[in-house]
């Protein structure tokens, strides 16, 4: 995808996002205890890319539904994303998110945990509201899908936390892909598309999106990890190289551990075994230089592009009975966008 | 309630609890990523009192239902309780729970937040399983009730966190009661009874439990706060006087702030305004002495007993059409138990 195509795609994306953000902000209670619902809107106001809600809306359109049917679910998808981010930032002790301080740095971890819970609960509220749109039976199916998505996400998050906690270093790229499926792909790609199609009236058995969503989600995550290393803060809006200080098991790190010398591997393992607050920026720079020396970023870029290719094949399979439309094209374009993006 | 009666009540309670704990532990997945489901069972294995699940089972029995119908929901109630405790301990930076280290002290706050989420999600899984027991329509009602309960609990938790965060000192006993309704009464008393009656087949409109649950829950919370000050660790199993170090707005503290001299009030406010890690045990002892000097514990004890009396009146109203049975008697006995208990 050329830079020009990426910008055109982003314009369509922004259109989808604005519809969702407006509805999302309007759905947040205006009364309640201090430091709760007012903070639920903090991350959404900072405007993410909105790809998850856009996928939900576009899939609904592609399957013959309307935005009016899907908006409620698109808001839920985006709320879940924000709820997960809040907890994720607490768990990773992250510093910046979307160009501002993370919620727990501003208001303390206690309030941040609560606001994350409230965000997820408001998402669930939106999911339950589907009853008036698609009836009880189909809403029950969507609730089951929601529970499944949350379980996958939690397990993926647990896997990543356990790798850091236990200082696991014997990891293969396939371990990373399995983690991506659970931590990223399910809630960011598989779930929004499955809900979008169902809301439009497609029978749950008539669509899948699991392979497609897995691959595109993994490509997305790899690109995210690359941007964390070499991105531009003004566009990426998270702390650059924060992953190195967090000890995150990225594809670059996994590649490095298998490519470097035994002595270097021992040093990297020692660095990763230290508590986060003992890791210095100078050490993170050293790890970054090692990653560059062993071409791990190029390796990751190639992997992301291969995954995008595989995702495209699966996308065409998943959408083979869906007539061509701008919405369908948007879903297909998403694949190359996730590996071309610089934000 | 005499000590003898309390022990007899606790024996019945233990019977209910053992049924629930066994089913609860059997419902936790045995596979999955490390430090997730294995830790979900950590707090339940330490054996709480189990009053919430017992209320759910007893209410179902009292309304003519069976344990087989209610067990699933009783497990959910107890799981939600444990999930809330895990997050609550992170938020309050608590040290001990049920005679052991809190989860976040043992495994770090990142893993603890995730395990809390997993516990709540497993609870929601149990709630959804009710579909095979009471059908889709009634399960949808229970899901709505669950969402409402979680919202109340979050808002109550937010209120308490905000009072500490903003160092709010101008509080009346009515503020405390409102916080109890949301933080404690709803999920511990109102919700278990409402679900129990509904599972037994009572139409949702035919039972209420809101007043009854509010009052008994507030009495329970006051007693809990008293035990935190003057309890026996061997029975109470949380760190004694931890609330003083946490700056918790208990009824004793609210009473003290309105009864003490202006100079003392200024000192107390200064103490409460410091970050938790700057408060010393010696200062907590000083605050405790002040609370004793102004008879705040006696004041709280009287308030708890008055609330228990009001709860009993409401209990008899709520259960007036329910025939006498051991289960009904258990619910009524619960009222005096919550203010007599030493654990």
Task: Characterise this structure.
2 copies of one chain form a homodimer. Chain A is mainly α and 343 residues long. Chain A has one domain: Farnesyl Diphosphate Synthase (Orthogonal Bundle). Chain A has 17 helices and 2 strands. The first copy, chain A, has a two-stranded antiparallel sheet. The interface between A and B is large, with 42 and 42 residues.
Give the SSE layout.
Two copies of one chain form a homodimer.
Chain A: H1 3-27, H2 37-40, H3 42-45, H4 51-62, H5 67-92, E1 96-97, E2 100-101, H6 103-107, H7 109-129, H8 131-165, H9 173-199, H10 210-230, H11 233-236, H12 242-246, H13 251-259, H14 262-273, H15 281-293, H16 296-318, H17 326-340
Antiparallel strand pairs in A: 1-2
Helix pairs in contact in A: 1-4, 1-5, 1-17, 4-5, 4-9, 4-17, 5-7, 5-8, 5-9, 7-8, 8-9, 9-10, 10-16, 10-17, 13-16, 16-17
What would the keywords be for this entry?
homodimer; 343 residues; Farnesyl Diphosphate Synthase; two-stranded antiparallel sheet; 17 helices; globular
């Amino acid at each position: 995808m050329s830079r020009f195509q990426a910008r055109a795609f982003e314009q369509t994306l922004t259109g989808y996002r604005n519809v969702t953000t407006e509805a999302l902000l309007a759905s947040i209670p205006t009364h309640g205890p201090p430091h709760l619902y007012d903070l639920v809107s903090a991350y959404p106001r900072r405007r993410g890319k909105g790809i998850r809600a856009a996928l939900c809306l576009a899939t609904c359109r592609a399957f013959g539904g309307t935005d009016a049917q899907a908006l409620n679910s698109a808001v839920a998808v985006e709320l879940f994303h924000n709820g997960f981010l809040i907890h994720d930032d607490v768990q990773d002790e992250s510093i910046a998110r979307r160009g501002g301080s993370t919620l727990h740095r501003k208001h303390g971890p206690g309030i941040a945990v609560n606001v994350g819970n409230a965000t997820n609960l408001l998402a669930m509220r939106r999911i339950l509201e589907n009853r008036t749109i698609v009836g009880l039976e189909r809403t029950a199916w969507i609730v089951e899908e929601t529970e499944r998505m949350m379980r996958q996400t939690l397990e993926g998050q647990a896997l990543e936390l356990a790798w850091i906690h236990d200082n696991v270093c014997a990891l293969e790229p396939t371990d990373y892909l399995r983690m991506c499926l659970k931590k990223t792909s399910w809630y960011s790609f598989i779930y929004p598309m499955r809900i979008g199609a169902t809301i439009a009236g497609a029978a749950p058995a008539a669509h899948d999106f699991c392979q497609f969503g897995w691959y595109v989600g993994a490509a997305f995550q790899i690109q995210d990890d690359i941007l964390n290393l070499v991105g531009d803060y003004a566009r990426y809006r998270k702390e650059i190289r924060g992953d190195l200080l967090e000890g995150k098991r990225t594809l670059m790190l996994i590649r490095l551990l298998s490519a470097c010398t035994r002595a270097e591997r021992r040093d990297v393992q020692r660095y990763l075994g230290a508590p986060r607050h003992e890791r210095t920026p100078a050490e993170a720079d050293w790890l970054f230089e090692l990653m560059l020396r062993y071409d791990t970023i190029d390796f990751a870029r190639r992997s992301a592009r291969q995954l995008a290719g595989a995702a495209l094949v699966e996308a065409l399979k998943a959408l083979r009975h869906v007539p061509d439309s701008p919405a369908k094209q948007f879903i297909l374009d998403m694949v190359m966008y996730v590996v071309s993006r610089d934000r």
